[in-house]
Amino acid sequence: MTWRASVLTLFPGMFPGPLGQSLAGRGLDDGLWSLQAQDIRAVATDRHRKVDDTPFGGGAGMVMRPDIVDAALALVADERPAIYLTPRGRPLTQARIRDLAAGPGVVLLCGRFEGVDERVIAARALEEISIGDYVLSGGEPAALVLLDACVRLLPGVMGAADSAGEESFSPGPWAGLLEYPHYTRPAEWQGRTVPDVLLSGHHGAIATWRLAEAQRITRERRPDLWAAYHQAHAAAVASPPPAP
Ligand SMILES: C[S@@+](CC[C@H](N)C(=O)[O-])C[C@H]1O[C@@H](n2cnc3c(N)ncnc32)[C@H](O)[C@@H]1O
């Protein structure tokens, strides 16, 4: 069955945007997934089609009204997970992406202004997800990020050559590690060469080198991931994680 995405937004023209190109765009054309961009303003009934109002308690900015957001959700809600993209949500992870991609699809609510009235988040039991510790001007780029990460995992979207098997955050022997470095032709470029082991044709040695490099990069760049990996694979790791 087709994986279905519905995006509630004040800017439907932002979709499919970059998702209309490359692998995701081909998948969309081939019917491997579908995308519905629902204009939230379409459910506004007053003369000015107002979707927001000033915050109770005072303060800067405007808040998206609960009745408007609820009516927009009612147009698309079904058994799919309904997610509000917000910087105060749980950080998005590859594990959550895998779960979402394995399900029927998603409903994504994009906020604008100061965000959405709390009551509709509670009434609709929306899952709150953040794409990082920074503030965007709207949820649309976050929705595009989440959809891109899901769509590439759908059956038929990614060719075998682009397999997700050994990449960062994937399960299996590489679980918990960032990816090792890649090299391609030419073997020498601007005086820089390729590690000898990769030219050796010795698959065992190459696998050992890649694992060691993945461990080194994770240790140097992400002490949080390294500590968790080290705990899970203490015997396989040569050196201890750095002190916090
Ligand atoms: C200007 S932001 C509102 C920020 C909010 N007042 C706060 O301080 O948390 C407007 C909208 O952008 C989206 N947004 C901003 N940053 C985001 C992030 N890091 N992850 C997901 N969505 C984000 C949300 O939908 C949010 O409602």
What would you say this structure looks like, in words?
The chain has 244 residues and is α/β, with parallel strands linked by helices. It has eight helices and nine strands. α3 links the parallel β5 and β6. The termini are far apart. The model has no long low-confidence stretch (mean pLDDT 94). It binds S-adenosylmethionine.
Approximate shape: elongated
Largest sheet: 5 strands, parallel
User: Strand content of the residues, in percent?
Assistant: 15-25%
In angstroms, what is the radius of gyration? 22 Å
Instruction: Write down how many β-strands occur, each being a DSSP E stretch of 2 or more residues.
Output: 9
Q: Strand-and-helix sequence, N→C?
A: EHEEEHEHEHEHEEHHH
Strand-pairing-aware structural class:
alpha/beta
Number of helices: 8
Average of the residue pLDDT scores: 94
- Strands in their spatial order, largest beta sheet: 2-1-6-5-7
What is the secondary structure topology, with strand pairs?
Layout: E1 3-9, H1 22-29, E2 33-39, E3 52-53, E4 63-64, H2 66-76, E5 82-91, H3 94-102, E6 105-110, H4 118-123, E7 127-130, H5 140-151, E8 188-189, E9 192-193, H6 196-199, H7 203-221, H8 223-232
Parallel strand pairs: 1-2, 1-6, 5-6, 5-7
Antiparallel strand pairs: 3-4, 8-9
Helix pairs in contact: 3-5, 7-8
